[in-house]
Structures are given as structure tokens and as C-alpha cells.
Amino acid sequence: MRTVPALPRGGRQAEITDALVELLVALIHKINARGERRVEKQLAAEFKKVRGKEGIDLLCGGCLS
């Protein structure tokens, strides 16, 4: 038989709930950070594409517009 610490039942349940909430918050933070990095990477790639097209457009005298 296993001994249970002398905590009221509600106290143990609150500890478990707190731990689960902390895990959920950490998971959401990780997902958001990953999404932000992905968006920043895509924006940087789009900026490079647009920046290159401006140079080409200037060289060909506005033929891309």
C-alpha cells in the first residue's frame, strides 16, 4: 500500500492543475515562437525577392510594371 502525503485532497488537485497549466502555457509559448520565426523567415524571403525585382525593373527601364 502506498502512503499519501498529509495534504488535503484539494491541495494535491490544485498542485496538479497548476502543473498542467504551466505545461500548457509553455507549449503555447513554444508554438507561438516557432510561428513567429517562420513568418519572419518568409517576410525576409519576400523582401529579398521584391528588392531584387526593383533592381531588375530599374535596369530594364520599368518593363516589369
Characterization of the model:
The structure is a single chain. The protein is mainly α. The protein has a domain of 40 residues. It has one helix and no strands. The longest helix is centred in the middle third of the chain and has 51 residues. It starts with 8 loop residues before the first helix and ends in a 6-residue tail after the last helix. The model has no long low-confidence stretch (mean pLDDT 77).
Write a concise synopsis of the structure shown.
By secondary structure, this protein is an all-alpha fold. 78% of the residues lie in helices and 0% in strands.
List the helices and strands and how they pair.
Blueprint: H1 9-59
**Overall pLDDT metric:** 77
Query: Which percent range fits the helix content?
Result: over 70%
Main sheet properties? none
Shape by Cα distribution: rod-shaped
% residues in beta strands? under 5%
Uncertain stretches = none
Q: Compute the gyration radius: what is it?
A: 27 Å
The end-to-end span amounts to 80 Å
- How would you spell out the order of helices and strands? H
SSE-based structural type: mainly alpha
Q: Counting H and I runs of at least 4 residues, what is the number of helices? A: 1
Total beta-strand segments: 0
Oligomer: single chain
